[in-house]
Amino acid sequence: MTKLPCLKIANRTFESRLLMGTGKFSSNDVMKEAIAASGTEIVTVALRRADLSNPDDNIIGAIDTDRYLLLPNTSGARDADEAVRLARIARAAGCKPWVKLEVTPDPYYLLPDPIETLKAAEILVKEGFIVLPYINADPVLAKRLEDAGTAAVMPLGSPIGTNRGLKTADSIRIIIDQTQIPVVVDAGLGAPSHASQAMEMGADAVLVNTAIAVASDPIAMARAFKLGVEAGFTACMAGLGKEKIKAEASSPLTGFLRNNS
User: Is residue 103 within 8 Å of residue 120, measured between CB atoms?
Assistant: First the structure.
């Protein structure tokens, strides 16, 4: 089998197309094993939960930063100023200048603010950050962020933590069609089949947290998501058949329709 292409974001390449979050795990040991089972190479951590400058921090200490790219995120930021401040804190603490940009002023549905997200992205890109913004599945905003210099866009499949899957599939398809930077489907993916569907659609990667962390067996679920991502991406590369309205037999019908048979 021909080796599948790697995921490239900014100046780095990754074998895995599954990104993982670190919230909601029952313990850091379980989180650590789930990360390993997922095959991921990018792990995101909420800046409000971790002390990045302290190697003894219980979250940071559980992540092998030589093995995984630590992607700080600005979860909890309510506007651009707060998000920019959090990103600067992460870089000052010694993190690589990568940031998952999240600006979610709404405390109930945690939907991202498009205006503040674009504002923060423009500032951070100018300061040399590699910015991966979490956004609504808005094709126009995705292009604006690409034009601003973000390294990827991360449209939501459905609201964070809902496990409802790809409710925004039609808009994500437009984003995939129109953008030239990686599209990482983030939020709402509750089953490996959701991740596989996103990859079949042509997404470059997916990010999963809750569905793995709250599973009865998070380590097995991490492995299942790994396989789902690989299956979906392989199918996309192999070339899926087109959907049709009318039936079309896969075998010739003429043989048993002869009158003398």
Answer: yes
Contact call for residues 175 and 155 (beta carbons, < 8 A): yes
Least confidently predicted of 20-24, 61-65, 240-244: 61-65
**What's the pTM value of the predicted model, to 2 decimals?**
0.90
Catalytic pick among 100, 126, 143, 244: 100
Instruction: State pLDDT tens for residues 133-191.
Output: 999 999 999 999 999 999 999 999 999 889 999 999 999 999 999 999 999 999 999 99
Cβ contacts of 238 within 8 Å, gap of 6 or more = none
Length of the chain: 261
Q: What is the structure's pLDDT at 259?
A: 56
What contacts 120, CB < 8 A, 6 or more positions away? 74, 77, 80, 83, 84, 87, 101, 103, 133
Instruction: Quote the DSSP letter at residue 183.
Output: B
Locus of tokens 């984003």: 175
* Mean residue pLDDT across the chain: 90
Q: Alpha helix (H) ranges present in the chain?
A: 28-38, 80-92, 114-126, 139-148, 169-178, 192-201, 210-213, 218-238
Asked if 78 and 107 touch (Cβ cutoff 8 Å), the reply is no
Please name the residue ranges forming H helices in 157-217.
169-178, 192-201, 210-213
CA neighbor of 14 nearest in space, from 189, 201, 182, 219: 182
C-beta of residue 111 within 8 angstroms of C-beta of residue 78: no
Active site residue 100: yes
As beta bridge partners, residue 217 has: none
Residue 238 backbone dihedrals phi, psi, to 5 degrees:
-75, -25
DSSP 3-state percent helix, strand, coil across the chain (nearest 5): 40, 15, 45
Say whether 160 sits in a helix, a strand or coil.
Answer: coil
